């Protein structure tokens, strides 16, 4: 009987720590993993009083779930929106089940299972670095869109996002190892290198945020000289990798600067933009019918944000419904043209092109913009409350010197506002968002005992 009980617990724990690896295999495998976690938890712990595990955080999430379903019902595209909102409850149950499993096993996790995540992240990092230098990875998968390496993710360039969102959790797992500071630094160095080489600017920005909060934490425990050495090493690594690669420099530095700068277009009375084509200076092209009320953007992300803002103005309280940005963005009142320059020639003449989709996309590429457009002010209140709550918990865990500081940091950076982001209701991202929550809930419950 004891053997069966231990086998059951080990099996469930293995499913938990295989979640990041299942995400590498694809969203379907990850969803299947979540399904089995929920199913086997309900079967194996059917006699447990689940009320004992319902915390205020879970209640908050259930209220959020009820709200997004209501928002879907009052949206223009009800069925499409409900497809995202109704199944969302599985993510809350998935976190709750992780909390229950970890609580019942009293966090007694074999090292091999615990380090499945470490092994996955280190292998993906090394594989990505190899792919960057040789054009193909260890499985001979080629990289056709340098510098955005992808390792085992193939055509989906999400390696940087995957690694950076789980990086604080990696530090948490290594906090119990022998020579933990050395292990953390080496693994951090390897993963950071891979993140930088992916060419994903949002991942690099989140990496800098993680470095900042990590240094604050380790400031209490490390010698000043060691800390300064670590900072200088990481900064040197970042600068060397970026400026030593023309492709990375072009993406991180040149592209960012060109997108920030405002390009002055000359509008004539017929609402045409004159375009200088460096291939044929004798002829000027024009593009007609630009923009909503003559507004146009040279930065596509700004166009997404402004389109989301216009949607918010039309439905301020509960928004247009989860995942409905994609359904509304091509409407005249929300659509804005985006004009980009290909490159500058020596005479500062620009070859302009009109981005066909303009401000339209599957999502506005920022969580806060998405909440405003799809969930309105009520949704924004939920988001802001969650972010400030996590900030408070982050400060408290820092104060008491808890290693769960990095679990909370994993949650905190998922809601970081000052960067581009994926679709909040995307299955792949949502699984990453909710993964550390079960660990956090277990920590909170144990700290009260």
Q: Report how far apart the termini are.
A: 28 Å
Secondary-structure content class: mainly alpha
Q: Which spans of ≥5 residues are poorly predicted at pLDDT below 50?
A: 262-291, 344-348
Q: Report the portion of residues in β strands.
A: 5-15%
Main sheet specs = 3 strands, mixed
The whole-number mean of residue pLDDT values reads: 83
What would the keywords be for this entry?
mainly alpha; 62% helix; globular; two-stranded antiparallel sheet
Give a brief outline of the structure.
The chain is mainly alpha-helical.
Mind explaining what this structure looks like?
Helix content is 62%, strand content 5%. The chain has helices at 2-17, 19-25, 27-44, 56-73, 78-85, 89-104, 111-114, 116-134, 159-174, 180-197, 201-218, 224-243, 246-260, 300-314, 325-328, 367-400, 405-414, 427-447, and strands spanning 273-276, 284-287, 296-297, 337-344, 350-354. The strands form two sheets. It has a three-stranded mixed beta sheet. A two-stranded antiparallel sheet has the order 1-2. A hairpin with a 7-residue loop joins strand 1 (273-276) and strand 2. Helix 3 packs across helix 6 and helix 10 packs parallel to helix 12 (224-243).
Helices and strands, with pairings:
Blueprint: H1 2-17, H2 19-25, H3 27-44, H4 56-73, H5 78-85, H6 89-104, H7 111-114, H8 116-134, H9 159-174, H10 180-197, H11 201-218, H12 224-243, H13 246-260, E1 273-276, E2 284-287, E3 296-297, H14 300-314, H15 325-328, E4 337-344, E5 350-354, H16 367-400, H17 405-414, H18 427-447
Parallel strand pairs: 3-4
Antiparallel strand pairs: 1-2, 4-5
Helix pairs in contact: 1-3, 1-6, 2-3, 3-6, 4-5, 4-16, 6-18, 8-9, 8-10, 9-10, 9-11, 9-17, 10-12, 11-17, 14-16, 16-17, 17-18
